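In this section we turn from sequence analysis to structure. A common task in structural bioinformatics is to predict how a protein folds when a small molecule is present, because the ligand can shape the pocket around it. The inputs are simple: the amino acid sequence and a SMILES string for the ligand, here zinc ion. Study the lines below before reading on.
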Amino acid sequence: MTERILLRAGHVLSMDPDIGELPQGDVLIEDGRIAAVRPEISADAEVLDMTGRIVIPGFVDTHRHTWEASIRNVAPDATLDDYFVDILDTFAPLYTPEDVYAANLAGALECLNAGITTLVDWSHINNTPEHPDAAIRGLKESGIRAQYAYGSANTSLADYWFESKIVIPGDDVRRIRGTYFSSDDGLLTMGLATRGPGFCVNDVVTAEWALARELDIPITVHVAMGRLAGRFGMVRQLNDLGLLGPDTTYVHCCYFHEDEWRMVADSGGTVSIAPQVELQMGHGWPPVMKAIEYGLRPSLSIDVVTTVPGDMFTQIRAAFAAERARVNADCWKANMPVPDTMLTARQMLETATRNGAHVAGLEDRTGSLTPGKRADVVAIDATALNVAPVHDAAAAVTLSADVSNVETVIVDGVIHKRDGRLVADVDRARRLVQESRDRLLAAKEAKGSA
Ligand SMILES: [Zn+2]
């Protein structure tokens, strides 16, 4: 029997250019798939009344180290340099599979609660072969759509992040690909989280890129952030190695040389920008407009909850304000009017949804409310005092709404949040992540006194 859900009479921001915005519209879901988006639909279905709600495609977070949910806010004032020491050299080596499971479960539920329906889990915490299985179990149990990006171990900063000579173990990556991702059509898909030139010697870089291509999985890599990586010229180096391609997502990109932007654009690469982290931790200016100028479709990402909030509204606002602050300051200095090509609030919604799906390689199934795509849908309560009255629905989402307004969350046609409450064992997830925190702090203490 066909299962149908009808979202009735919402203000629909489809993010599909052919459908556009419906001030009053219905969205019909059939067996997990969007069947129709029209002003009025009648169907024998479970009806969710969307009166006073803004209906959007779910947000896509294109880079988050979900394993860090157990150590939320341990590094509130950290710079990127501090982060390497405080997180990658201190906490990461202590992580057990149980910690990764707890953090991935709680972190993925945190995403769903905030309207993030697709997540790229940048999982560089594979200290043993049990770690990837634990990470995947956490994602799977949450019900989120995710790309699990298999990363290196993190048992020592010196071994893994400075001219590293250690390749991500190909046999284990192949095992994970074969065990969990024999099809690329599932709710969970796979990628490879690589470290790249400067962080690794060239042989390692070449081997990791070859591994991803052998297994036909996308590559994600941090580039051009802060003092350190900004000097590496990582994309130039990748270009010299002949490794650039459309299967690669470049994260941060704050200190690209102009020719590196051109190389990324010409090779069909994609871009993930983590604005709050970049502004706060010293990575550099979030280059949203720069990416757009090169014809790229930049996406947004959360990165680390050790230091920034885990929701997309924060990222949208951080990128929007930073971009405009920079342009305003430049124009003031040059005594020129601001250009009319300034970034808009509506562009930010596209960045957080459709562009994210493009970057995660999942635009065929998510990122817009398009008939034929999987049903990843979010409803925002626009009757709340911080959102009403609505004049511009896109601005209401990007500039007024917050996590408390995320009322309904549907992934692949399954309702994960209803009437403002997650349909999940939140108490268990919280307990697990608290136990993980306690275990990690005790291990840190023990190591410190050893
Ligand atoms: Zn990152």
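The CA atoms of residues 224 and 230 lie 4 Å apart. As an exercise, try to locate the residues that line the zinc ion site and compare them with your own expectations.
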